Amino acid sequence: MLEVADLSVEYQGVPVLSHISFTLKQGSLAGLIGPNGAGKTTLLKAILNLVPLRSGCVTFGGQPISCQRQRIAYVPQRSQIDWDYPITVKNVVLMARTVHAGWLRGYSKQSRQLVQQVLERLELAHLSDRPISQLSGGQQQRVFLARALAQQPDLFLLDEPFNGVDKKTESILSGVYQELKDAGKTILISCHAWAEALQTCDQLLLINNSLIACGSPDVVLQPENILRAYGMAQERNHWHRPSYHFC
Questions:
Q1: Residue 159 maps to which CATH number?
Q2: What are phi and psi of 85, to 5 degrees?
Q3: Do 38 and 209 form a contact (C-beta atoms < 8 A)?
């Protein structure tokens, strides 16, 4: 179980997140939604203690998050990655096994087999020796999910994994997330568009610097919550769409 209690973050005295509290149970697939600038990326980083907290605490499995790093995988937005770094697909994924092998030891046979299985699941095995700079956007997104899977964590924090990817990648990612949920893993996905959240998530967190609503999509995506989070113009543009088809 992931528990976030009274979490607040500020940058140079300006509040970015204010008194956010929520709980994600084991085996839950949750979407984090809100307008641009709402603090979604900051919340994911704050959960990981990658940004200083003004207040609050985060625990996973009843222990401080700082004691649970090996059980947590974080996949940032693709725009935050240096894709010109000279490394192959397989070596990116193998990096996830370093904590198991140690810096001065080689990778075990079991680790290499696991990496191969992950590459095959994400349909990347044929690209294993290709530099990451030569991949498409969807392939790049799958590489970093593969690295997260090879880590074998219990909690996944994913920042806009559907952003700008192809239909094939959308389908693969959605299938993997469902498999992780069925295996009892906890997944929190930052989503730019509601369509992503509605298709893949059974729980939503709607934020705009503070927590507006938390619960099932039907509970969270009520007009009054959308109005509070996005304002009247966004409410008209987004709420009255005929469908939310994504894949």
A1: 3.40.50.300
A2: -60, 130
A3: yes
